[in-house]
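Narrative progress, year one. The postdoctoral researcher (J.K.) led the effort to move from monomer predictions toward full complexes, under supervision of the PI. The following entry was the first complex the group processed end to end, covering 583 residues in total.
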Amino acid sequence: MFALDPMLEGDVLWTPLIIVVLKVLVVFVVGLVATMLMVWFERKVIAGMQNRIGPNKAGPFGLLQTLADGIKLFFKEDLLPRRSDRFVFALAPFLAFVPAFLSFAIIPLGGDFRDGNDGLVTWFGVETRVQLADPHVGVLFALAISSIAVYGIMLAGWSSGSKYPLLGSVRASAQMVSYEAALGLSLASVLLVAGTLSTSGIVSAQATLTDWHLVSTGIVPFVIFLIAATAELNRPPFDLVEAEQELVGGFNTEYSSIRFALFYLAEFMNTVSMSALIVTLFFGGPQPISFNGVTLDIPFVPNGLEGTIWLLLKVLVFLYVYVWFRATLPRLRYDQLMDLGWKVLIPGSLGWFLLLAAQRLARDLGWNIFVATAGSVVVLGVCYALMLAAFATSNKTRESQGVQF
Amino acid sequence: MQLIVFVLASLMMILGAVGVVTRKNPVHAALSLVLTLFGVAVHFVSLEAYFLAAVQIIVYAGAIVVLFLFVIMLLGVDKAEDISTEPLVTQRWLAGVAGLGLLGLLVVAVARGADVLTTRSEGLATEAENASGDANIQQLARSVFGDYVVAFELTSVLLVVAVVGTVMLARKRTAGEA
């Protein structure tokens, strides 16, 4: 009733139940360990980029630095500001933490998708998928979770009863609602090409390199998704929520101890699961790299396990990209952020989606695909010109009226 | 199983709804509203309307209430309201009468329509199609973009008109303009 997983159909039996419990445990632990390593990875890589050494004391290569930090945070004093809203202040870290883990649940973490296999594996005589849940709404679940994630940040800032966190949370709500539209619209292009919402279905549809949605949707939706996802994660260059130079510490200024640790954890967990989502949507998830009938196969490893290795490698690339962004790009100004979101990304993703839809329609109805594409491009060009004219007019009016508040 | 889910989700909704009315702090009231919306989403899932559940969360909980909170925070009206003086003297009585009337209407409607689902209609024939996970979306798309496409387009025009109207109303008139 709740999932497409063949294991969960029929009566409740002991083996499937144990497998589900095991999956939950594994996903949770993998999430925590991935977060821990991600914090270390980010500090180490960014240190390398800035010609520093980075953490190197705790454990080999400083690997246990995060663990040490976590233990330290556990034992610090838990402060409750006097002007805070107690209940909401205590609730907010969990509202940030829980969605971060939930979105990891729908990522296919492995399984054999090659040669038309649908990624099912057999564990203890039960057919199942290597992912915690494959809900009917698939990636919409990820969208829903990322839209819920804003509550943690927003309420944390508001309930602190202090002005800098409040400014941070007002920024957070506006930013995340704005970029969610671009995120959803670029996702729509992928769904149009894949023809299904389920994450495992989306992975199955990307068997060869040319089927990867990066290629088959054109590169534009991927670029827009990557930018919007970065903004959704509040990572640099979109980290206006916690702009240290302007807002002291941002939304989490008043937080200390374990509550602060939860925000920190949620942020890095979100980065990991968003990278995994990007890989699932655009880079074939656990699919191996395969082009023109030649598949890059890792020898001596069963295909089911190989998927996990491929996923890991691809996710690592994106984690590196996020760290790279942070080390390279300066933070946007608030008006630039809003301009980019509303005037570039949303019209861009919408236009591209319409173009893909027109091509799809042309193919289904047997029209000449080049004529259809050219026609759509002309129409979109006219729309773009109209939009530019509207921007120019509004700018002119604003300048002639001077600054108004 | 179905009954347990129903009771829990309904409890969520009722608690949330009571919270919206009784909490004095607007932010708390908005959070109670989120609880209610989640309860509705749970009901949708248990009725196998997965797409509606997802959209319920994305649009209502994820966007609309966030905008409410944004406005509340931006305007700084997040203090508990003083409601000891009433702007309209008889409004509590009138609200009571209207509430009772609505309750009566609902009770009559439910009592008279009790057999709608069982005898008068067969419901949607979804069983066969639900084998694939995307049946929900296909059916919705067929009604929204097929059977009711005109109404759908007109609604979007209406929304645009509403937005333009709001912007016109909210815009400050400067000297020299009509």
